[in-house]
Amino acid sequence: MSLLKVLFVLVTIAAACAGVCNGGVTSTFVRKSQPSTCMPIDTFPPPPGYNAPEQVHITQGDHDGKSMIISWVTPLEREPNYVIFWEANSKNKHKIHSRITSYRYYTYESGYIHHATIKGLKHDTLYNYQLGTGDAVRRFSFTTPPKVGPDVPYTFGVIGK
């Protein structure tokens, strides 16, 4: 049998098998198009003010604890795209700009996702920071971890669902 005939037979068998199987269908479930009733839309209302920063969270930005990454979403516009931060016992404020991303998934279009890395922080120090402008300013704070050492206790929290 020629190579062409063997290939034809293999393709024919594969096509016949594909018609018999479900072709990757794993469930008959189809999501309803209406919103979920188990978590109403108004459970987590957006903060007040035009284009107010939402979904604000922080992440330690390095292994030493001298860097923090502030992340947030602005729902309508790219601006303001910066964090203002300062030591709690100081009036000397600093501004750092964010990197902005967004994504699209079918008909959903995300807001503007911001990530700003604050570097050169002091260990075991309370910092304040703010996001937004005008009537949409939001203020938060964090404490950097103690200097890394063999006998330094370190407690952190994880929140999620």
From TrEMBL:
<protein>
    <recommendedName>
        <fullName>acid phosphatase</fullName>
        <ecNumber>3.1.3.2</ecNumber>
    </recommendedName>
</protein>
<dbReference type="GO" id="GO:0046872">
    <property type="term" value="F:metal ion binding"/>
</dbReference>
<keyword id="KW-0732">Signal</keyword>
<keyword id="KW-0862">Zinc</keyword>
<comment type="similarity">
    <text>Belongs to the metallophosphoesterase superfamily. Purple acid phosphatase family.</text>
</comment>
<feature type="signal peptide">
    <location>
        <begin position="1"/>
        <end position="18"/>
    </location>
</feature>
<dbReference type="InterPro" id="IPR003961">
    <property type="entry name" value="FN3_dom"/>
</dbReference>
<dbReference type="InterPro" id="IPR015914">
    <property type="entry name" value="PAPs_N"/>
</dbReference>
<keyword id="KW-0408">Iron</keyword>
<dbReference type="InterPro" id="IPR008963">
    <property type="entry name" value="Purple_acid_Pase-like_N"/>
</dbReference>
<dbReference type="Pfam" id="PF16656">
    <property type="entry name" value="Pur_ac_phosph_N"/>
</dbReference>
<dbReference type="InterPro" id="IPR039331">
    <property type="entry name" value="PAPs-like"/>
</dbReference>
<keyword id="KW-0479">Metal-binding</keyword>
<dbReference type="GO" id="GO:0003993">
    <property type="term" value="F:acid phosphatase activity"/>
</dbReference>
<keyword id="KW-0378">Hydrolase</keyword>
<keyword id="KW-0325">Glycoprotein</keyword>
<feature type="domain" description="Purple acid phosphatase N-terminal">
    <location>
        <begin position="53"/>
        <end position="144"/>
    </location>
</feature>
